[in-house]
């Protein structure tokens, strides 16, 4: 093992990485539900869906990101109240707001599921992935799961894009001056952990790479695989492998995202090699906590973080695969980044030479220490 890598992992506390400054923007409401006894004159409201009900009526909609407003005339004109709340919503981050004039009531349930996408650049692929998620069939809950982009980069390139697309956003600084540190190169493991600890909470998470396209009935197929396996962790694609498009094919898919749903000529993608541990992961929040999340203090710079996490969750239950019904995901081509990982061979040695030789019992102390650390951040 490289002595510089060993010194680095011994000297950088994991908590310091979690505490490393980040910028976090929430999202706007998906809709307003106004509860009132007042007679409301109709008005045009086009920002988001609006429902007005009496106190004794059943609340419409199932989306936990809808905002419930108990309205009285002394609060001012309803239209002005709604626009005001819309503009202030990011700042409140779904926390109940009270003052002497009005009371806004927010639904407190966790999201059923959310999509988390880490990124450093690659806008040409990321925007395709976002567009694809917004055009596929709705899941059974009847609304698209909220998305979160976590950017680890020298500058917050995607902040304005996320505001425009109403996507939760978290950015933290990548310091290129020293690529030997966990923040000196892209740290996907830290992106995932920060999303879990500081982002809007959900029951289920789809941790998804910024270059992977899903089929039109993805959510239905995924739920059917969950019903079949009842697992807390599912690799949400078949073949144990993504369909990796060849370089000359990928531009056609970027231009026409519906090609994902059509038969793909085997000549258009690379040979299927089973055993991919990453690309997309679907798991329950309890399993993420049990496994201690990712390990950003051990793996960074496109290291073997996926392989290590995959191994850890496998210790808790056999991996469930999305084979019935099958889910084929398409990987958009991009130049390989692994040669740029300063300590890649040492990380591989740590993961495969140490961690993967341990049993669940051997690692229980390690898991417990990670869970205790998580408790400091999960409220």
- The helix content is 25-40%
Taken in chain order, the helices and strands follow as HHEEEEHEEEHEHEHEEHEEHEHHEEHH
- How is the CATH topology of the largest domain named? Spore Coat Polysaccharide Biosynthesis Protein SpsA, Chain A
Category by helix and strand content: alpha/beta
Alpha-carbon distance between the two ends: 38 Å
Q: Could you tell me the strand content as a percent range?
A: 15-25%
As residue ranges, the low-confidence spans are: 91-104
How is the topology of this model organized?
Blueprint: H1 3-11, H2 14-19, E1 22-25, E2 32-35, E3 50-53, E4 67-70, H3 78-92, E5 97-98, E6 103-106, E7 111-119, H4 123-133, E8 147-153, H5 159-165, E9 168-173, H6 188-198, E10 202-208, E11 212-213, H7 218-229, E12 233-235, E13 243-244, H8 250-255, E14 280-284, H9 285-290, H10 305-314, E15 320-321, E16 330-331, H11 344-353, H12 364-375
Parallel strand pairs: 2-3, 2-4, 7-8, 7-10, 8-9, 12-15, 13-16
Antiparallel strand pairs: 1-9, 4-6, 5-6, 10-14, 11-16, 12-14
């Amino acid at each position: 093992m490289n002595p510089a890598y060993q010194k680095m992992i011994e000297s950088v506390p994991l908590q310091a990485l979690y505490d490393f400054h980040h910028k976090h923007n929430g999202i706007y409401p998906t809709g307003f539900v106004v509860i009132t006894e007042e007679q409301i004159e109709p008005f045009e409201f086009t920002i988001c869906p609006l429902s007005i009900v009496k106190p004794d009526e059943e609340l419409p909609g199932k989306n936990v990101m809808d905002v419930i407003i108990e309205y009285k005339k002394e609060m001012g004109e309803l239209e002005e109240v709604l626009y005001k709340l819309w503009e202030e919503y990011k700042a409140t981050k779904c926390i109940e707001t009270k003052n002497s004039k009005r009371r806004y009531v927010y639904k407190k349930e966790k999201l059923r599921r959310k999509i988390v996408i880490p990124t450093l650049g690659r806008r040409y692929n990321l925007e395709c992935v976002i567009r694809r998620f917004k055009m596929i069939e709705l899941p059974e809950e009847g609304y698209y799961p909220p998305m979160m982009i976590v950017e680890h980069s020298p500058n917050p390139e995607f902040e304005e894009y996320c505001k425009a697309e109403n996507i939760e956003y978290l950015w933290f600084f990548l310091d290129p001056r020293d690529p030997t540190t966990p923040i000196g190169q892209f740290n996907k493991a830290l992106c995932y952990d920060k999303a879990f600890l500081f982002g809007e909470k959900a029951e289920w998470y789809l941790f998804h790479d910024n270059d992977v396209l899903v089929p039109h009935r993805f959510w239905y197929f995924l739920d059917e695989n969950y019903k079949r396996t009842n697992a807390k962790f599912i690799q949400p694609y078949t073949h144990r492998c993504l369909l990796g498009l060849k370089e000359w094919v990928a531009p056609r898919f970027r231009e026409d995202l519906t090609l994902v749903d059509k038969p793909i000529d085997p000549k258009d993608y690379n040979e299927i090699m089973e055993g991919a541990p990453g690309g997309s992961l679907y798991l329950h929040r309890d399993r993420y906590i049990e496994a201690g999340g990712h390990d950003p203090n051990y793996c960074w710079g496109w290291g073997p973080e996926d392989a290590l996490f995959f191994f850890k969750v496998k210790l808790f239950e056999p991996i469930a695969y999305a084979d019935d019904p099958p889910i084929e995901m398409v990987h958009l081509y991009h130049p390989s980044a692994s040669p740029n990982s300063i300590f890649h061979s040492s990380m591989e040695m740590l993961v495969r030479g140490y961690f993967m030789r341990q049993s669940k019992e051997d690692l229980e102390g390690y898991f417990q220490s990670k869970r205790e650390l998580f408790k400091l951040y999960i409220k």
